[in-house]
Design a protein that fits this description.
The structure is a single chain. The chain has about 375 residues and is α/β, with parallel strands linked by helices. About 40% of the residues lie in helices and about 20% in strands. The protein contains 13 helices and twelve strands. It starts with a strand and ends with a helix. Bound molecules: 1,4-dihydronicotinamide adenine dinucleotide and magnesium ion.
Length: about 375
């Protein structure tokens, strides 16, 4: 087995967390007997933009479509390039052009990482947020009328297509079915948003009939946010529209500790590279965090979000054993360090109350994977 991976480090700490993460993936490939070919691209970064006046080369699509998956660091250097240029010109273009309609984020309490909520809940946190990633509230339909007058008015419409709503809900049901708890929570706001949200609820009810083994519940987004904070241990798979999913997919990882450990997958689960009749749309794996200009260049960024994103990528490519081993290695190294063993606080990065560096923590996880 052999996979070609597009590697895009981006800006800031993206450039620092990528090398140790690639070594972890390499260790997993060696240990579990498959090959990874990394193709590194300097674009989709502000450095590239400042040199070329554009975020992407004209053939970026073909270059990425020649790969099995995209491994993305972080983009953004707000001091030199406005965020709407750098993000719309890179990661958002990938999501849209490759129809990556699922944004999937695990929220899990990792041994050794202190959650702001751990003591309150006293129970393990282990759930996924599934966000619709292509339509909904984030449409470009709308505009301004009566500009510059007292009657100035802006309108932006929400777009829910049957195909778009059904495919994300069905993906969430399938994920719930594959997990022991088999529970799906749907985010809604049908008490206030009276056309699109009742439609969303209706599609959830309809598709639920195909999954009698999955327990379904729905909450309005406002109280659901409160439940995330007060009882995060009760969730299993949580599905939401583009806007609600965006909110929940940042709140979820925040409930499990530092943003530095959280990964994210932008998936097109229906695209098949081997199918000659449809275009190939690769999926993209990235940490939740951005380029962190405030700590860039110091070598202290937490590499776990990047490494965990690599773990999701291996799982997506079908390398389940290697993915499981990577997850165990992350948990083992962090848990051991917190207990004072295996280098103790000296290998944890400062965001986890340690004194370690990106390189030290990355190497410890790499060695643990090689030993699996
Ligand atoms: P950020 O995630 O880069 O940083 C937020 C805070 O978390 C900072 O204090 C940072 O030091 C800390 N942090 C983030 N990752 C960390 C890690 N791995 N280890 C330790 N601490 C970490 O978000 P911010 O500051 O809002 O954005 C900075 C730039 O990143 C902007 O240009 C923004 O547009 C971009 N960005 C890019 C994303 C992407 O590439 N998908 C996602 C989010 C932001
Ligand atoms: Mg967000």
């Amino acid at each position: 087995r052999s996979y070609t991976i597009a590697v895009i480090p981006g800006d800031g700490i993206g450039l620092e967390v990528m090398p140790p993460a690639l070594r972890c993936l390499e260790a997993a490939a060696t240990r579990f007997g498959f090959k990874l070919e990394f193709r590194s691209f300097p674009w989709a970064s502000c450095t590239y933009y400042l040199k070329h006046g554009t975020m992407l080369p004209s053939d970026w699509k073909e270059l990425l479509q020649a790969c099995d998956a995209i491994y993305f660091g972080a983009v953004g250097d707000p001091a030199t390039v406005p965020d709407h240029i750098s993000l719309w010109g890179s990661i958002l273009a990938f999501r849209r052009e490759f129809d990556q309609y699922i944004n999937l984020r695990p929220c899990r309490l990792i041994p050794g990482v202190t959650s702001p909520l751990a003591n309150r809940a006293g129970k393990p946190i282990d759930f996924f947020t599934v966000r619709e990633n292509t339509e909904g509230e984030y449409s470009s339909i709308g505009g301004m009328i009566f500009e510059g007058t007292e009657r100035e008015t802006v309108i932006q419409n929400t777009v829910f297509t049957r195909v778009g709503v059904d495919r994300v809900i069905r993906y969430a049901f399938e994920l719930a079915r594959s997990r022991p708890a088999k529970k799906l929570t749907s985010a809604t706001k049908s008490n206030g948003i009276s056309i699109t949200m009742p439609y969303w609820d209706q599609r959830v009810e309809e598709i639920a009939k195909e999954y009698p083994d999955v327990q379904v519940e729905k909450y309005h987004i406002d109280i659901l946010c409160a439940h995330f904070v007060q009882r995060p241990h009760t969730f299993d798979v949580v599905v939401g529209s583009n806007l609600f999913g965006d909110i929940l997919s940042d709140l979820g990882p925040a409930c499990t500790g530092t943003i530095g450990i959280a990964p994210s997958a932008n998936l097109n689960p229906s695209s098949r590279r081997e199918d000659p009749n449809t275009p190939w749309f690769p999926s993209l794996f990235e940490p939740v965090h951005g380029s962190a200009p405030d700590i860039a260049g110091q070598g202290i960024a937490n590499p776990v979000g990047m490494i965990w994103a690599g773990q999701m990528m291996l799982e997506h490519l079908g390398e389940k054993n290697a993915a499981d081993a990577m997850m165990r290695a992350i948990e083992t190294v962090l848990g051991r360090a917190k207990d004072g063993a295996g280098g103790g606080l000296n290998i944890l990065t400062p965001d986890m109350q340690g004194k370690g560096t990106t390189e030290e923590l990355g190497s410890a996880i790499e060695q643990e994977i090689a030993r699996a």
